[in-house]
Amino acid sequence: MDRQQINRWLAKDDLFNVWTIDQNGWIDPFTGAVIKSTHGIMKVAKRHLLQNRPWMKFGLKTMPELQTIRWSHHLQRWVEPDGRLRIFRRDGLWLNPYSGDWEKAVPLENGKVTIRTIEAMATVLAAQPQLANREPLDTAEIGKRIYGGGDTPRPAVGKRSASRIGDADAKEEAATAREAPAEPNPDLNRAKQVLERMLPQIPAIPGWDIGVCWEPQSIIGGDFYEVIRVDPGHLFLAIGDVSGHGTSAALVVASTLKSLRHAVKAGGNLVDIITRFNDDIVEDLLASYFITMWGALIDLETRIVTCICAGHHPALLGNPRRRAILTQLGTAAPAIGLMKGEILVNHLEPMTLQLRVGDTILQFTDGLFETANRDQQVYGRRRVMANFLMELDKPSSAMAKALVDDSRAFTQQRFADDVSVFALKVLDR
User: How far is residue 187 from each of residues 110, 190, 243, measured CA to CA in Å?
Assistant: First the structure.
């Protein structure tokens, strides 16, 4: 019955057909979460609804709410690199670069663009459906709005997200808006330092080689990883992705790491840890947020690994000595934060495997393979798999970095999402 209802929703209900502005994601009309995919989006949407059944926890959002989420998702990605989105007058009016109008209801906070500012921008843009598929004005048109043309009032001063600029600087802002990098933000830099301190130090464990490459798309981001020596004989591993980007996602990451460490410390098997973590972190999640995570518990003596995919894709296992050189670890289960633990526990399917010398486990976030080049060709999981096999002889840290570097070289531009890669090798003792 669920499958039939989902098919009807996707075929006939406009609320189930709202895409991100870049057309690389579908917006869940129950949670507002962005489900990313560069191809086969309806298949991805159907799988997401079947696995997570968000209607059990959330009601349907309205179309204005979904359009606001759509714009907010776009602005969080582009407000830093694109200076056209950050032009304000001394009287507080914001230049809407899609319409060329000066808007009132977009507040700066201490001269800075914050999440509250972005949400106000998104609300303004969502209220103007004619702007839905429009490109921002070019720099020449932006310059006319800044300096006046026809009936357009001439602003005395503009503002960037972190500081005031005068008329001369406003002209430069207009001329270089597309290429303007984000200005240094002391608050964001401090938040980055705090987040980096919260991420774990990689322990040195005889017989095991662990490496990580973590690259947020902006100064801070929504990817995380965890390595916890539970006791002398057991190791807990996790890598995951918080829905959303930027400051809000990073705040959720901080709460995630605290809750996850508490859940691991309380003991139990992997299912116990995941459900306990789910019930703890759900209190800190906004209605539209959830967490995808791959978690594993390893017996260091017997080399038996148990893993769970909570809304995350399977890990890869590579070893030239095995009959199957490349396999996947983990079966699909709902993401964290979408339902209570008493319901989630019935959907978690642990996978257990005996590891051997020469085995390498690789796990990563979707920013690694969903990135695309300027011709809109997607890097894809197959390239990840192929390059993983090519790099198997490298130490874990070098392997993780090589995979990120190869994806970046393919893209030939900055990543559009946070990227994290985690590798673990089984060595001779």
Answer: 12, 5, 22
